[in-house]
Q: What sequence folds into this?
């Protein structure tokens, strides 16, 4: 395998990436330890009683590390009171101080708590979105300045036995890093490595690293590249995983599962936090469900040895395919829905799929999240279907129903025999074990085929990725729909598992469609929304407004959950727009790097609005800020009247 792209222990066999062990209080992180779960308090750090009560709720939910913000000296000092009260009540769960702009606060906290988190983007640097040109000598001087500011914290941590997390955030890279490396995963990695090298030189190794971003694509690439670069420099520090500002509800869960799950699938990650705009104790069960899947990953079926991996794990590039109908080529990934187990298919059945038939008008209303194909199996569809929809039948059923936009599903044996087929689209079901030179040779000569890949392997993502690699190494450009089958899961479990399995492949540019087949897993509407949510989270198909919303913490200056709900209620029809909702300036313009518009708390009862990274209006009263945001969107021509929206 190409060692220039190495980032995990194996692409074909599940095994944890082996990091060094770091002790944080009474628990070990990395090494042979289990993946640890953590969350962050949302209370005012100066409110000892409330912070202790919330910490206990988190611990009872399964939180193994409690992170508390310490933006200044007073908050850092009050960590002692919080720790004392928790110990008094019988809780010795390690505490983590979250530091951004104040090195002095970090130095105080390092003598109190078991771990200190610093952000290299703003610990010793400033961010004003200025592009600066450095000579090599000038850049070296900047590194010396950072080293001088950082060494006192390292020395205190060594003296006190305090661990450290160097937590890089995509949105808060310093002007210096941005000027040299750009707003890229490489910039994130270099930002952390500058601090890591100082730690290594000072013989301080109780360090954990994170590479967080609100965009799962950027986040995954950064973690992979970090591992690769650490190996080059003979480092193997543990990794804390998280998608920052993931949001709330199903969107937050799907986005978190796509990013965190893609890394867990390759055995990467020693500690996890799912960042939801909800109470912190609700984050822990979600993280637990993500992590616990890997306790049952063994045994899994053997996957063929891999000699050459054509996928660049550090840079997104969509697999090149030819176009078949609306699948492959430059088309966005399609969504296929399973209706093969229905007793009867009627026009009313399609309402859950995004199609609403109006009897008086005799027409279909089609939403932005309407599926592209229905797999009907052996059930006949005996009514006029919407013009944007295709029906896939099992082969023998298709022979009796070759109507407009009706296509056959063939198994490999049928496909390889000389049988009648559609001149437009033929869907061939296949698994990795079915693939051979004869099939690949026929596929390369056939412009009408789309593969629907499936797996029964316990390590299914890796098996399906291996199938893609086989096609790519043989220059076979047949489009592929990724199918995964689930049974007896609740709604959240399905969202998390499907997002991990399908999202991982999509992040690598693999897949021209998704097919979530289920048995006893919830409503058709929920399954369709999950499929579109996965495509949205991977940025492969945008069908709705995206909210980049931070979880609450002690720095938050307004009710994030309530405000997010208000903004969502008024803007959810703005397809493709990205709106950042940030509780404070720490999570301001930098953290919402991808956002088109930003709503940021800048004082008690005061909001500042951004257009991308530029301040537009300052200190708007909270009760008028949502309406002001709407007016801002309108002023830039991005507003659509809800009555004219198909969402």
A:
């Amino acid at each position: 395998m190409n060692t220039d792209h190495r980032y995990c222990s194996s692409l074909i066999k599940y095994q944890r990436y082996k990091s060094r062990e770091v002790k944080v209080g009474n628990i070990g992180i990395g090494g042979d330890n289990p993946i640890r779960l953590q969350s962050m308090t949302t209370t005012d750090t100066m409110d000892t009683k409330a912070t202790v009560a919330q910490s206990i709720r988190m611990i009872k939910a399964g939180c193994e590390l409690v992170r508390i913000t310490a933006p200044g000296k007073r908050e850092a000092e009050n960590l002692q009171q919080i720790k004392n009260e928790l110990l008094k009540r019988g809780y010795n769960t390690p505490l983590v101080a979250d530091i951004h702009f104040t090195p002095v606060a970090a130095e105080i906290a390092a003598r109190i708590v078991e771990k200190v988190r610093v952000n290299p983007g703003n610990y010793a640097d400033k961010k004003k979105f200025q592009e600066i040109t450095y000579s090599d000598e000038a850049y070296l001087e900047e590194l010396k300045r950072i080293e001088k500011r950082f060494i006192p914290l390292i020395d205190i941590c060594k003296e006190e036995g305090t661990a450290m997390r160097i937590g890089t955030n995509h949105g808060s890279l310093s002007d210096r890093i941005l000027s040299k490396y750009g707003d890229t995963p490489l910039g994130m990695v270099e930002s952390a490595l500058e601090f890591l090298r100082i730690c290594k030189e000072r013989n301080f190794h109780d360090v954990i690293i994170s590479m967080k971003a609100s965009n799962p694509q950027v986040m995954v690439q950064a973690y992979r590249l970090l591992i690769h670069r650490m190996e080059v420099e003979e480092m193997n520090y543990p990794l804390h995983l998280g998608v920052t500002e993931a949001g709330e509800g199903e969107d937050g869960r799907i986005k978190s599962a796509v990013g965190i799950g893609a890394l867990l699938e390759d055995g990467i990650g020693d500690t996890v936090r799912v960042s939801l705009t909800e109470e912190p104790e609700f984050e822990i069960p979600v993280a637990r469900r993500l992590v616990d899947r890997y306790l049952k990953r063994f045994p899994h079926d053997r996957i063929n040895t891999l000699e050459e991996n054509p996928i660049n794990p550090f840079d997104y590039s969509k697999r090149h395919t030819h176009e078949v109908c609306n699948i492959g080529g430059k088309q966005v990934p399609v969504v296929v829905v399973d209706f093969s187990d229905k007793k009867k298919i009627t026009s009313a059945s399609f309402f859950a799929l995004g199609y609403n038939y109006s009897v008086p008008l005799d027409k279909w209303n089609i939403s932005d999240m309407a599926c592209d194909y229905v797999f009907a199996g052996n059930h006949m569809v005996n009514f006029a279907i919407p013009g944007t929809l295709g029906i896939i039948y099992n082969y023998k059923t298709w022979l009796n129903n070759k109507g407009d936009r009706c296509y056959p599903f063939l198994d490999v044996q049928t496909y390889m025999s000389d049988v009648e087929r559609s001149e437009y689209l033929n869907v061939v079901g296949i698994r990795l074990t079915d693939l051979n030179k004869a099939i690949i040779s026929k596929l390369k000569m056939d412009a009408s085929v789309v593969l629907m890949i499936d797996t029964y392997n316990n390590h299914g993502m890796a098996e399906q990725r291996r199938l893609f690699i086989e096609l790519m190494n043989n220059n076979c450009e047949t489009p592929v729909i990724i199918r995964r089958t689930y049974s007896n899961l609740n709604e959240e479990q399905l969202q998390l598992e499907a997002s991990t399995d399908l999202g991982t492949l999509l992040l690598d540019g693999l897949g021209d469609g998704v097919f979530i087949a289920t048995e006893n897993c919830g409503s058709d509407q929920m399954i369709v929304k999950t499929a579109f949510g996965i495509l949205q989270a991977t940025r492969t198909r945008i069908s709705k407004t995206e909210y980049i919303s931070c979880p609450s913490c002690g720095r938050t200056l307004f009710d994030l959950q309530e405000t997010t709900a208000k903004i969502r209620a008024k803007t959810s029809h703005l397809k493709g727009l990205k709106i950042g909702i940030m509780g404070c300036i720490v999570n301001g313009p930098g953290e919402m790097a991808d956002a088109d518009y930003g709503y940021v708390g800048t004082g008690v009862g005061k909001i500042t609005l951004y257009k991308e990274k530029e301040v537009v209006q300052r200190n708007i009263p909270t009760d008028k800020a949502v309406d002001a945001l709407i007016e801002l969107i309108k002023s830039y021509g991005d507003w659509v009247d809800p009555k004219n929206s198909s969402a």
